[in-house]
């Protein structure tokens, strides 16, 4: 009976270096300190090796990480969140009650996901992504022609490919040795979308502030002639 022993150390003794634990107390009382020192040396050497090889590994796998990050970014930039948010308004303008519209979008989304589950192994991940992006592009391009019906087409196209396939594809394209960190980078890029969007909007607001400060004159309490002179100080007034 080995109390406090690691199960792997019991079944395969000598596979791993011993440490100061209950297992060492029972199985081996000699040379524990020297073995611990050797273990520390091995750990330090492994750490140094990882620090040296990690940049090379990331450079080697950077194209795969870029593909995963770009897929998630394109998923967000497709406009699916805006379509979900404004779908009730679009259906309401077409005379459809909001509760019916929300239920219809949910049913279409669920149906598309079920279809994707069935076709995923038959058509492949890439085929579903290509068809999904093309369907979304056609639906969004014709949105002004038949808004209510093509909202459902856009959601169906998203649910049949870009929605479920992207996450599954990310779990398959990354090697196991970098999967955790690569997925973390992709998720960070996914959440950077709103940050970039609102940063751009804030930048335009700042540009508007600077533009108004430099070019717009105050019109309160002034006549039209005074305003014109302020805007065109070197021009002659023409009546």
What is the compact description of this entry?
Helices cover 78% and strands 0% of the residues. It is built from nine helices and no strands.
Q: Can you offer a commentary on this structure?
A:
This protein is an all-alpha fold and about 240 residues long. The protein has a domain at about 80-175: Growth Hormone, Chain: A (Up-down Bundle). Helix content is about 80%, strand content about 0%. Helix 5 packs across helix 7. The N and C termini lie far apart (about 110 Å). Mean pLDDT is about 75; it is low at about 1-10 and about 15-20. It is found in: Membrane. GO terms for molecular function: hexose transmembrane transporter activity.
Number of helices: 9
CATH topology of the domain at 78-173: Growth Hormone, Chain: A
CATH homology superfamily name of the domain at 78-173: MFS general substrate transporter like domains
Helical fraction: over 70%
GO molecular function: hexose transmembrane transporter activity
Transmembrane segments: 58-80, 100-120, 127-145, 151-170, 191-212
InterPro entries: GLUT (IPR045263), MFS_sugar_transport-like (IPR005828), MFS_trans_sf (IPR036259), Sugar/inositol_transpt (IPR003663), Sugar_transporter_CS (IPR005829)
Subcellular location: Membrane
């Amino acid at each position: 009976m080995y109390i406090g022993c690691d199960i792997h150390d019991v079944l395969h003794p000598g596979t791993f270096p011993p440490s100061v634990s209950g297992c060492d107390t029972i199985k081996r009382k000699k040379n524990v300190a020297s073995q611990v020192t050797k273990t520390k040396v091995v750990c330090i050497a492994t750490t140094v090796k990882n620090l040296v090889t990690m940049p090379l590994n990331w450079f080697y796998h950077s194209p795969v990480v870029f593909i995963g990050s770009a897929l998630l970014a394109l998923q967000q930039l497709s406009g699916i969140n805006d379509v979900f948010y404004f779908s009730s308004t679009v259906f309401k303008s077409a005379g459809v009650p909001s509760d019916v519209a929300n239920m219809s979008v949910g049913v279409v989304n669920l149906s598309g996901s079920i279809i994707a589950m069935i076709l995923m192994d038959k058509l492949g991940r890439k085929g579903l992504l290509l068809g999904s992006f093309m369907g979304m592009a056609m639906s969004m391009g014709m949105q002004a022609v038949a808004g209510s019906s093509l909202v459902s087409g856009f959601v169906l196209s998203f649910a049949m490919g870009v929605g479920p396939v992207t996450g599954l594809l990310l779990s398959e394209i990354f090697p196991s040795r970098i999967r955790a960190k690569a997925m973390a980078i992709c998720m960070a890029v996914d959440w950077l979308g709103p940050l970039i969007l609102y940063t751009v909007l804030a930048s335009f607001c700042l540009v508007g502030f600077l533009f108004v400060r430099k070019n717009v004159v105050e019109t309160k309490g002034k006549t039209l002639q005074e305003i014109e002179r302020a805007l065109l100080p070197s021009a002659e007034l023409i009546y």
